[in-house]
Amino acid sequence: MGGVDLTYENTQRELATDKGVIRYHEAGAEHDDVLLLLHGSGPGVTGWRNYRGNLAFFAQTHHVYIIEFPGFGVSDPIEGHPVLTAGKSVIRFMDALGIEKADVIGNSMGGVVGINLAIKFPERITRLVTIGGVGPNLFSSSPSEGLRLLQEFTDAPDREKLIRWLNGMVYDPALVTEELIEQRWSAAIDPEALKTAAMMYGSAAFEMQQKFMADSDVPPYWAMMHKVKCPTLLTWGRDDRVSPPDMALVPMRLIPNAELNIFPKCGHWVMIEAKEAFEGSVAAFLAR
Asked: Which segments cross the bilayer (predicted)?
């Protein structure tokens, strides 16, 4: 960006669609290759909070868009399950801006969204990078420790539960600053964000999901990962307590062109906690 400081204000954009406004951040406009950054879920999450530290790096080589999914308090909410509405919003976004195909980085839920897009729209996704979150628990308990903490917060939100959950997200507790706690708390109690969280992580929603999977003829998304045609880089924190690294084994085996990079002394937020190593690894993968 020629030395321009990438702030929230100077990168924020709005896109009006027939399903409400999608808000996003844009940088690296002089590049032809498009990179979409898809955020995760959890109390107070936004795409900007997930990726603001990585935006300047990837804007050196790509035209980068951080997309804010509907229902997380930034873009306009729409009816439906957040993972499904997120995927549809990405296609709607790409169509509206005339983006035929793009590289994708997806954090946690954003990685699941990315894999679903690569299965359903293989011609639109050129390369895929996931950060934790994809695949089934093989050896670790389900829900994991981090998801249990998230469930406890979602069922009866309070500040102490939020702090416990945030500490479960990282390897280094020094990352859980007062500023981070305040940011996440004020965003987490947004009515739309609370509604989305209840649909995804409330104990009632979890029980419903388990029942649906037991009674359904529809295979889980991870059973369809052999259909992902694009080169895929799975990145993982070795100390991830939300999606423990044993989850990586199924996508690593099923996705035909998958490779796995595990970062030591790192929790669920690989792009934040292992920032330089993550950026270097992803840059090399995208440049191939």
From this structure: none
Decide: 36 and 130 in contact? Cβ < 8 Å.
no
231: tokens are 């080169």
Confidence label for 1 from pLDDT (cuts 50, 70 and 90): very low
Residue 51 included in any domain: yes
Q: Which residue has the tokens 């044993």?
A: 246
Please state the φ and ψ torsions of residue 215, each to the nearest 5 degrees: -95, -10
Q: Is the pTM of this model over 0.85?
A: yes
Domain assignment present for 45: yes
Strands 232-237 and 258-263: parallel
Q: How far apart are CA 279 and CA 282, in angstroms?
A: 5
Q: Is residue 197 part of a domain?
A: no
From the candidates 25, 62, 63, 268, give the one annotated as an active-site residue: 268
Give me the number of domains the chain comprises.
1
Tokens of residue 51, six digits: 């990726």
Structural domain of 81: 8-141+219-287
C-beta of residue 50 within 8 angstroms of C-beta of residue 37: yes
| Size of the chain, expressed as the number of residues it contains | 288
Report helix, strand or coil for 98.
coil
Q: Measure Cα distances from 200 to 33, 72, 194 in Å.
A: 33, 12, 10
Token output for 30: 């002089």
**Residue 2's pLDDT is what?**
44
**Mean pLDDT, rounded, for 75-89:** 91
Q: Exposed, middle or buried, 155 (CB in 10 Å: 0-12/13-18/19+)? A: middle
Distance from C-alpha of 122 to C-alpha of 124, rounded to nearest angstrom: 5
268 a catalytic residue: yes
| Residue 205 falls inside a structural domain | no
Mean pLDDT, residues 157-184? 96
CATH number for the domain that contains residue 34: 3.40.50.1820
Count of other CB atoms within 10 angstroms of residue 38: 31
For residue 284, give every residue at least 6 positions away whose Cβ sits within 8 Å of its Cβ, in sequence order, or none: none
